[in-house]
Design a protein that fits this description.
about 130 residues, alpha+beta, 5-stranded antiparallel β-sheet, about 35% helix
């Protein structure tokens, strides 16, 4: 599958199914015991793909009336990597299933939090892939 086709495969409709909005409340419920304690929403975006790597991003957008403080988001790559609600391992498996068996995911990892704006922080998700043939 050429890299150019990947943006068609990983359109926003599919990404919303892979990381549905209710995951945000489930995450904060598990983390704090109360979903209302969460300061941001979590969504998934496709950044780009090559024959060696797929790059996605977790977008953390501040909730109305809440502050998206750096001290809240900078430690999240490690939390996301092992949190059962976010479940990156399962997410990677679902992404691999969309690759029609042409590629397999060898490894995944989260990059460091990037502060894009005061209302948007991004956590990169890298999936290292190799052709199956």
């Amino acid at each position: 599958m050429p890299a150019a086709e990947l943006s068609n495969v990983f359109d926003q409709s599919l990404l919303n199914k892979l990381m549905p909005p209710e995951k945000t409340d489930q995450f904060f419920e598990a983390l704090f015991g109360d979903a209302d304690e969460g300061a941001f929403n979590i969504s998934l975006a496709f950044r780009q793909g090559t024959p060696e790597r797929l790059e996605f991003e977790f977008h953390l957008t501040s909730k109305p009336g809440k502050c998206l403080a750096c001290n809240l988001t900078y430690g999240l790559p490690n939390v996301f990597a092992r949190h059962p609600v976010i479940n990156i391992k399962e997410l990677a498996e679902k992404i691999a299933a969309r690759l029609d068996g042409i590629y397999k995911i060898d490894r995944w990892h989260c990059g460091e939090t990037m502060e894009m704006t005061s209302d948007l922080h991004v956590i990169p998700l890298y999936l290292d892939i190799t052709p199956t043939k």
